[in-house]
Structures are given as structure tokens and as C-alpha cells.
Specification:
The chain has about 80 residues and is mainly alpha-helical. The protein is built from three helices and no strands. α1 crosses α2 and α1 crosses α3. It is globular.
Length: about 80
């Protein structure tokens, strides 16, 4: 996977108790039992970590980790 994916998993591990070795790219935030408040907190952490701005639609409960990494990669490319 990409370094973006790895950094995202790192944020999940650091702030949300997700074990990096126990998640897969096709896991959804919903499947990881992140509720709407946790998604807001994750969105804020991601914005700080990656230096990007996310909309309410960028990270949703049904998104997979791979989907989220793709969104972040696109945001990072747009910054260049």
C-alpha cells in the first residue's frame, strides 16, 4: 500500500485503538466501529497530519481505508 495508507492506519492506531496488523485496505470505517463523532475526530487529525482540507463527504462511514487513502492522495496532488 501507499505511504498515505500507512500514515492513515497510523492515525487510526494512535487515536482510535485500531491495531495496524488487524486492518485491511477494504475495511470500512463503519466496520472498524468508528461512529460519526470518531469520524469527525479522524477528519481533524487527518487534516493536521496531511495539511489538507477535507469536506464532510471526503471521509464517510462506508468508505474503505483504501478509498480514504485515494482521497488523501488526490488532495495532496492538488496541493502541488
Amino acid at each position: 500500500m501507499s505511504s498515505t495508507y500507512d500514515r492513515l492506519v497510523g492515525l487510526l492506531a494512535k487515536g482510535f485503538g485500531v491495531e495496524p496488523g488487524e486492518v485491511a485496505a477494504d475495511d470500512t470505517f463503519e466496520g472498524l466501529e468508528l461512529d460519526s463523532l470518531a469520524l469527525v475526530e479522524l477528519t481533524l487529525a487527518v487534516q493536521e497530519e496531511f495539511g489538507v482540507t477535507l469536506t464532510d463527504d471526503d471521509l464517510q462511514a462506508k468508505n474503505t481505508l483504501a478509498d480514504a487513502a485515494e482521497v488523501l492522495d488526490a488532495k495532496l496532488v492538488a496541493l502541488r
